[in-house]
Design brief:
309 residues; mainly alpha; 7 helices
């Protein structure tokens, strides 16, 4: 039985889209206020650039996760259709379904192995599937790992700017512009840290939801493989082995019967030879008896051996 995870996909997608929408609305409605904040805190263009880079990394990872959620939704729909066809007893449940789907690829893989009369190693197939899906997470893992580092990088750059301002202030204590540089660097460091932490919190939540979705999808694929795909081909394989075993037993019994008939023919031949020998002896003995009778008749009637002329 498949677990209904399609609703979870759409719920997570809705949450992600709502966050993107709210983020866009807040930035658009408070564009002047945000810009004024950076300038009043002396963060200037540096704060806008560093925080913009962090937000850009966050948005790139979020868009990638949206596409992956949509892909898992399609995979789940194909899996549900395949499961329905199997339940209806279709001869080829993969007919009419996209070949690029994970469950169809698994079905064709098991079918190919079964046609070669080899044993299906489901653990190897599952490991291959997990590895292929793990490769799809490269960008997501990169963004997940780089968000905090991006905040730390922004903080270091901002503190470096503040230290440069402090060095200039030491050279000329009356230069208030250097004081503004120090304050701007410190405010930029604070803003980049806060931006990175907030983005990391939301991204980590969606990252976990995406991993749960992938795990559940793979679990459903393995469940369908174990309960519905493998029995189809194992049944055919077992039937073939059973037929071969039955044929071998029948051939063995036929060989034993032929051997028994051959022995009977040999015994019959031996008996026929004995009967022929007995008949030959009887014929020879009968010839001798005829000769004795003929000699007795000739002697009794006093017949000559040669006829008279």
């Amino acid at each position: 039985m498949l677990k209904p995870i399609k609703t979870r996909y759409y719920l997570t997608l809705l949450q992600m889209l709502v966050i993107l929408f709210l983020l866009g609305v807040v930035i658009l409605l408070n564009k002047d206020a945000v810009t004024h904040f950076f300038y009043t805190t002396q963060a200037g263009q540096l704060g806008l650039v560093l925080n913009g880079v962090i937000l850009l990394i966050f948005l790139v990872g979020l868009v990638r996760m949206i596409f992956m959620f949509l892909g898992y939704t399609r995979e789940q729909e194909v899996l549900a259709r395949f499961y329905k066809k199997v339940g209806e007893g279709a001869a080829n449940p993969a007919y009419g379904l996209p070949d690029s789907a994970l469950i169809i690829d698994r079905y064709h893989a098991v079918q190919t192995i079964a046609r070669q009369h080899s044993q299906v190693n489901q653990a190897a197939l599952a490991s291959t599937l997990v590895a292929s899906q793990a490769a799809e997470f490269t960008l997501v893992r990169f963004v997940h790992n780089i968000l905090i580092l991006a905040g730390v990088f922004g903080t270091i750059v901002s503190l470096s700017v503040a230290l440069i301002g402090a060095a200039g202030l030491l050279d000329s204590p009356d230069n208030m512009q250097q004081m503004g540089t120090i304050i701007g660097g410190m405010s930029t460091a604070l803003s980049t840290t806060i931006t990175a932490i907030v983005c990391y919190v939301f991204f980590s939540y969606f990252h976990l939801r995406l991993q749960d979705a992938r795990t559940q999808l793979l679990a459903n694929i393995e469940n369908v493989t174990t309960l519905h795909i493998l029995p189809r081909f194992k049944h055919a394989e077992n039937s073939m082995l059973h037929d071969v075993a039955v044929l071998t037993a029948e051939l063995r019994r036929a060989a034993e019967a032929i051997h028994l008939i051959q022995d009977r023919f040999l015994h019959a031949g031996e008996r026929l030879q004995l009967a022929a020998d007995d008949l030959q002896n009887a014929v020879a003995q009968g010839g001798n008896n005829l000769q004795v009778i003929r000699d007795s008749i000739r002697e009794g009637f006093r017949l000559d051996d040669k006829p008279k002329g």
